[in-house]
Amino acid sequence: MEKVTIADAKRRMGPADVKRPLTDALGATDFALNYYELAPGDSLGFGYHRHSDQEEVFYVQSGVVTFETESGDVPVESGDVVRFAPGEWQLGSNESDERAVVLAMGAPKEAGELTMVRHCEDCGERTEQTLSLTDERDAVVSSCVDCSAETGRFT
Prior knowledge:
Elements: E1 18-21, H1 23-26, E2 32-38, E3 48-51, E4 55-62, E5 64-69, E6 72-77, E7 81-84, E8 90-93, E9 100-107, E10 114-120, E11 125-133, E12 140-144, E13 150-154
Antiparallel strand pairs: 1-2, 2-9, 3-10, 4-7, 4-9, 5-6, 5-8, 10-11, 11-12, 12-13
């Protein structure tokens, strides 16, 4: 048995106010587990995305998270659970004025190929993106694949 206190797990940079990966801390080998706290306007991912090989399950412990999907926006409230199959597009965001707390679980642990799109001002539309660390390793940057413009910076 492994036991972890969420507050003791290391934080990770990203689009959420708090992201604490719990997978390695628990020694999990077959699935991924992340704890999130979303301030108003925060999201669970760097952009609208899909994982080729991983299904994801999100449990909203408190607050409301709105998931953008191919079928439209779906609000997921406190106590609700939602599942995305491998290859399904999604992005969960906190569009409310209250904080949201979410547990995200994915299996298998390795998500496979990530495809992500964000709005690129230079291209005037959503484009495929890449992620990289700054040279100082103090932020994650998303960049447009088509024109290399920076589309987001996350600390």
